């Protein structure tokens, strides 16, 4: 059975899990299903949700980016440095976006031009970008943001419980979804993940496509840095630390094959809601952030085990099918 054929059933299963999480959360706390608490849960998850979109494209191609949290920290540090030198906030945001794109470009060049594994490259740049962020801001935080900027992180639209950051995420979600499902570039990403050499022989520019998804990841990480610094009302060198675990967990839990070639943003969206409300419910019952990280890690490992088992079953069935028709 191919993993792609499991996607609709996996998404249905995730919807069931989401319903169960909502019911259990409501039992755990009377505040869980209130409008204000749902807003808090969604606003707190938005930086992870935003970064999960390009991460989906990267993993579908068969690559991975471990440096996303450090790119966020570097962009936040650059924005903080700009504000310390009394530059306009808009210019600080533009500087962060430029740095994010350059960081993604550097990752992509190392992978495409030098042929290095994305896991090795981004583990290295995870340390590199975080180190640069610490050199720029050291241990100090910058919190001289105007009120309108802070509204990006936790402000609500009028009297509604909808955070402004959710609007940004929705725009990015539909943009990435349209690209992935309805364009030649999106089909090329799936083709690369399924069989890189076959995609190349079919006329797909594998190197340019991979470079493009890493640049997009860097740019979107900068957007997440803007949202996260606004949410925290502070720019620090440790902004976004550990965020890569939550992002990869959401993408893999959403049904994206960690080996590449399959997955949908709809599944990732449902997984993001599941993780957001699980984390919120755990916080309401008194679990510490460290304990919540243990749960997140356990979810990631469990999902990988399920997908690994599904892949092995699929390969075994293919082998027996070839054996029955007399082919090696």
Describe the structure.
- With about 325 residues, the protein is mostly helical.
- The protein has one domain (about 5-325): ABC transporter involved in vitamin B12 uptake, BtuC (Orthogonal Bundle).
- It has helices spanning about 5-30, 35-60, 70-85, 90-110, 120-135, 145-155, 165-180, 185-195, 195-200, 205-230, 245-255, 265-285, 290-325.
- The two termini are about 20 Å apart.
Give the count of helical stretches.
Answer: 13
Q: How do the SSEs run, as a string of H and E?
A: HHHHHHHHHHHHH
User: Which regions are unreliable across 5 or more consecutive residues at pLDDT < 50?
Assistant: 1-5
**What fold name goes in the CATH topology slot?**
ABC transporter involved in vitamin B12 uptake, BtuC
Task: Please state roughly what percent of the residues sit in beta strands, choosing from under 5%, 5-15%, 15-25%, 25-35%, 35-45% or over 45%.
Answer: under 5%
CATH class category: Mainly Alpha
Please tell me what the overall shape is. globular
CATH A-level architecture: Orthogonal Bundle
Terminal CA distance reads 19 Å
Number of strands: 0
Category from helices, strands and their pairing: mainly alpha
Name the helicity range. Answer: over 70%
The biggest sheet amounts to: none
Average of per-residue pLDDT values: 88
